[in-house]
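Hello Y.,

Per our agreement to keep a running log of every chain we model this quarter, I'm adding this entry. I've kept the format consistent with earlier entries: sequence first, then predicted structure.
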Amino acid sequence: MTPADLKRAQDLMIATQIDLRRPDEVRDHGRGPLENLGARYEQLPVIPEGGSQALNESAGAEISGRRYLGYLDFEDSPLGRIFEILTDVERLPVLVHCTSGKDRTGVVTALTLSILGVDRGVIEEDYALTNRDVPRNVDFVEQGPGLPEGITRAEMEKLVGVPEEAIGDFLDGLDRKHGGAIPFLRSIGVDDDAQAAIREGLLD
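Predicted structure for the entry above:
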């Protein structure tokens, strides 16, 4: 985050910070510049420790809709808790993030937008906006810790960006496996009353 980014986050008066990272990621990197926001902190790892290796074995290491669907095979209580928080207007505004803010965050955002009745095409366009920040993110890595050994700038750009079709493939998979995003959310306890409360809080 740039100083301007952090100032913007402070101005939004975030009430809740939802951290989707694994416990080992938080141990290794800390809470970062958001720690002093004054927000209530909730660590809700969508992928458990050891989960990334399991995903590599089942869906491959590349970012894909198939890999995103694999997130849903883990314990669903973190996802359920995220949407429980969103039903409580006193916990809003909420800031949701992972490490890069594109994969785990992208899945949670797509599910949230589905609850809000956002058109699928807009959900896909919103996800693709991730790639707008690729040059800035690579510049940050180059000028800070430096590119990892053996990684070219072009390879790093691929790592910090997203394949634009991934979220559509994820939503297609939800349709096939669960009948869509809304039936999936109901299956993990995000019932119609909870969804109505989320719409009321976020669309007010």
